[in-house]
């Protein structure tokens, strides 16, 4: 996520000594110093809304916690990104009701899977015993 936000590689010998070679360290340092906007990719700044960018940056920061128990799960990350995207679409559509439909057969080329998944009122769960995305049916 940090690489996408900044357009930079995870490890770089180009960054100065005080910035560190690790993009993660540089990213976290920029957040602490309130200079995050200075390191973001120009396309991200041009096409993204500041609120969305900051929400994604805070999510990326949480993903970089050293303590794995404090990091969000991939399911939580996906749900938060969907919520950020959904709020953006809601803002663009005004008061119009919006439902995001994903046609699984268009996304995945599985002969045995077909249908649609509807994402309404996404809720996150911190439980590691979450339901699988697709249940196995015979």
UniProtKB/TrEMBL annotation:
Biological source species: Abeliophyllum distichum
Keywords: ATP-binding, Nucleotide-binding
Gene Ontology MF terms in the entry: ATP binding
InterPro entries (UniProt xref): Kinase-like_dom_sf, WAK-like
Keyword Nucleotide-binding: yes
Name of the protein in its database record: Wall-associated receptor kinase-like 8
Keyword Nucleotide-binding: yes
């Amino acid at each position: 996520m940090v690489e996408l936000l900044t357009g930079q590689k995870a490890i770089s010998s180009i960054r100065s000594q005080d910035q560190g070679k690790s993009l993660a360290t540089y990213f976290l340092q920029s957040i602490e110093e309130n200079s995050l906007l200075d390191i973001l990719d120009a396309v991200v700044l041009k096409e993204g809304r500041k609120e969305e960018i900051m929400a994604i940056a805070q999510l990326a920061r949480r993903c970089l916690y050293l303590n794995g128990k404090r990091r969000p799960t991939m399911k939580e990350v996906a749900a938060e990104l969907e919520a950020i995207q959904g709020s953006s679409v809601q803002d663009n559509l005004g008061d119009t009701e919006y439902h995001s439909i994903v046609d699984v057969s268009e996304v995945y080329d599985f002969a045995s899977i077909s249908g649609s998944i509807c994402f309404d009122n996404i809720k996150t769960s911190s439980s590691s015993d979450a339901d699988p995305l697709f249940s196995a049916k015979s």
